[in-house]
Predict the 3D structure of the following.
Amino acid sequence: MASSPAPHNRTRSEDEDDPVDQMISRTGCAELHYAVQECMAEHQDWRKCQPQVRDFKECMLTFQNARREQLAKQRATQDN
């Protein structure tokens, strides 16, 4: 049985870089994202993947908070 494309990658060929994958790679959370995808492919039930989802969420929140702080510092130096 052929696997269906990821929901965010329906119109792209296998050789093209997916913009969502590119964005997640920049966060440093790609491996955790792939772990969620693998779990979902295996179990077809998000409830069975909660540890992976939690780990990915924590990683993304850490990245978002660090990015927010970085942008605030940049704005502060531009305002001075």
About this structure: The helical segments are 19-27, 30-43, 50-79.
